[in-house]
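Researcher: Here's my situation. A collaborator sent me these components and asked whether they could plausibly form a single complex. I don't have experimental data yet, so a predicted model of the whole assembly would be a useful starting point for our discussion.
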Amino acid sequence: MDELLRVEGLVKHYRVRRGWGGRGARVRAVDGVSFAIAPNETYALVGESGCGKSTTGFAVLRLIEPTAGRVWFRGRNVLALDPEGLRRMRREMQIVFQDPFGSLNPRLTVERTLEEPLLNHERLSAAERRERVAEMLEVVGLHPEHRRRFPHEFSGGQRQRIGIARALMLRPRLVVGDEPVSALDVSVRAQILNLIVKLQRRFGISLLFISHDLAVVRYVSHRVGVMYLGRIVETAPVRELYENPLHPYTRALLSAVPVPDPRRRRTRILLPGDVPSPIDPPPGCRFHPRCPEAMAVCREEDPRPRRPAEGRIVCCHLYGGSPPAETVSPAPEPGASPPTPEERRT
Amino acid sequence: MPLLSIRGLKIHFRTPQGTGVAVDGVSLDVASGEVVGLVGESGCGKSVLALSILRLLPVPPALFAGGEIRFEGRDLLRADPRDILALRGNRISMIFQEPMTALNPVFTIGDQLAEVYRVHRGQSRSQALASAARMLGRVGVPAPERRVREYPFQLSGGMRQRVMIAIALACRPALLLADEPTTALDVSIQAQILDLMLSLNAELHTAILLITHDLAVVAEVTRRVAVMYTGRLVEEAPTAALFETPLHPYTRGLLASIPRADASFQTESLNEIPGVVPSAFALPPGCHFAPRCPRAAEICRREVPRLEELLPGHRVACWRPGDG
């Protein structure tokens, strides 16, 4: 099997009322997102606030119910599962949240928090559970004596280690990381990023890494999908994306990221205005009102995904190429694993 | 004479857990029209320092334990509160990280911006509203005549920060204190706001003290930068020199721990600074960074290093400043 997770045409709309007593409207938070993740692969969804990246992550795990679309995990349709089937599948799909303060129960010791998944999903003796907890604490770089402490006794970085330990307790195949380092300070963020890269490789996890930070995404992922207004506008292997971005939005986004090098004077592509409301996305290409390269066709026609080069998909009228064959991700060779971080950094 | 001159500033906090040291003998100058970065991680005291300049710290629990802050020659810490009121929003302005909580939700944008002109310039209500609309236009808010009648919730985050900047710069202040002004914004909006701040700096000659945790932002907009760690200034240099030859092990560690998105630079592996920042209530003796420092020697754990000028304009507080 070459795909662990496949998402097809995922849609999540929210009904809202506009103004006081106003008419109903639909927020198109996620509006037709498709991608696939191979075993052992870190796939990142990157975009600005409100683009739908976190909603996508939550919908894949059914932490929120999608409006439409299909999610296949190891060949099974996640959206068709009954509650018991979903409970069992969650063993293999876990999540790490952004906020290391809000996502841990303040009244449970670290040991109780880490034991909880074992109590729910495995039949182990108290001694076995204790051993698994101790093992995992070491894996994430915490002391064994930390297990009797409460969340408030830890710093933000240590709490995020606890959150990662909790996600890994059941040895899942897929972990969704929803901005897992965004709340951390620079020096601690590096510790947690290195830990995430190390554990992803050590346990052969498939990681869906959700982040607004293009520099962080470059460091951890193998393949990247760039989201704008509820859609993926470009997908590419990490190196290609950063060295040769194709979509005008990706190019503008990359040019706007500040670089810690005062000698580098770059030409920034400043995008005019704000991201439009996901209640009435613009007709045609959703990016056209802000796009420096917009053409007449962009106002009329929604660009379909094209494959201008091997492994690359872009939704933009500037590019030709065949439409991707029903899949949005190139199916990896059977048995082939994505490049290790060393390989991809050379 | 520098516009702003801080000398040996010490700020403590009295709390039930004891006395915490937030700022520990910081000296820093900002010249007229200059853009200076003050950088450090959470809890290093950078925001407390900025708030103390405008006397916005609640005293108690805050306690000025020593030093002075001079602005245009005047000692702000000993100035009459009425004089400070006349300075705020007039000669010195401040913008904050969260434009939503910094704006009053029940007044229109126009009212909040016009207040500055009425208080400091003595303009009438209608004059002030007209000035407000003009200023909104200058900071790039589209349709300013309509926006003045809107409330903060009707604006996006980037637009709110533009409004905050308009309020701050309405009286053409000599100094703008910008405390993480783009941290809550998306990168494309951050680029817009940083550009706006720089063009207003060039146009109005307003000096900017930019307080941030983000070294990349510092590299893009400042000319000089000071690095704080646990209440102390550990390094200060022209921005280019700090990034090219960082001398303090903390600065070196920080610079090596940032991933980069620019195509020309590949991050091989991220450096980790081991351990955590010590608590303000339990600071180690000697150099505060010594417990996490790869170069720490015996003297570092015993004696506090003084900030000394090792290269022209480049000061560092370290017993064993590194170059390799």
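Model: Some features of this prediction you could bring to your collaborator: The two ends of chain A are 28 Å apart (CA to CA). Chain A touches chain B through 43 residues (CB under 8 Å).
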